[in-house]
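Quick note —
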Amino acid sequence: MAIVAPFGGSALAETFARRGRRTVTVELDAHRRTSARGAAGMAGVAGCADSVEHRGSLRQTVKALRGLGVSAVVAGSAAGIELAERIGWHLGLPQGDPETSRLRYDRGVQAVALARAGIPAPRGIRSADPAEALAWAEARRLPGYLLAPAAAGVPVEPVACDGARQISEAWPVVKRAVARYCDDPYLVLTERLPAPQFVVNSVSRPGADGPTEHVVTDVWAETRSGDRSLDRTDLLLPHQPSARAVSAYMPRVLGALGVMRGPVTARVAYTPGRGPLLVSALAVPGVSPADEALRTATGLDRLTDALDPWGPPLPGPSVPSVPGPAGHRVVRVHLRRGSGHAVDPHLGRILGRLPTVAAVSTGLGGHSPVTGTARSAEVVLSGGDPEAVEADYRIIRAMER
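Predicted structure written out below.
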């Protein structure tokens, strides 16, 4: 399996390697790597058997990968999606039209495509010019706005703005933050939706009769604190109304975005009056500390399913619906970094003693503060007793305080 432009470490390569896949990274050349990934992503990726540097010649890169026996291609970041799709076409493994690659990672381009297809999406504008964005906001007079990178997957949090003054102040701040990770000049200004948001994972593959099949594998509900920082993310069972609603919405979205093969992680808001609305979609396999807990709770292995689209077409849905045993809870608890952007190491060492802790972020059990570019450290709670899970959640928050 070729992983194109992996961002921020080796988790994806190591995860695929544990599932029996020999992996090769396709690294961008020094100039493209610096502009696409920033200082945080410059280190080599462990867990990969081989590495190929793409120096601008697609023919040479494809030749090298073909010689290594590559039979599957995934993007390791938004910066790698277009190149991964071009490589996939030349290897006979199409994932999407390379000429429309932005549909698979650009929030603004996605919103326009959904509107053209008659699919509900948030109102917004994609622009590199703050004056144009301010004029759009002035014409709409919405109750609130969110300013975010156009490229999904860039680790820069959206900024909430009430009006023109805050948009003007936030624009250069967000622009500078984005420039650390990519050279995309575009930001998106969208309406601020006072609605729950969900993380939706899906897998697409060619169907036995030709049309692409899109299957939602798991849905997670986000809860945010008063300052909009991420508090917790709960796995939903398939029969829950919100899970059913976003699962019915996503196949239409994926079709409009031109997804042909492989995994997609999407963020979807749900409003009672307008239904599900796509916030962003990213055609990159997602890896998190909760993956093993998800497999234990549901029997679903998302990363194995992500490999499935490169096998021969099978009749019927290629990924079964998640069985979801009644009452089993999986909760991703997002720890808030204190002063100096560090998590107290004492917290990590104590966490292992709590009965429902299934996993913690790498380094949380060490003897030094946890720092880095991640938005937060994470603790995964999992168990068949919902009250026990909630009790451990309350203990973690009490320890933080």
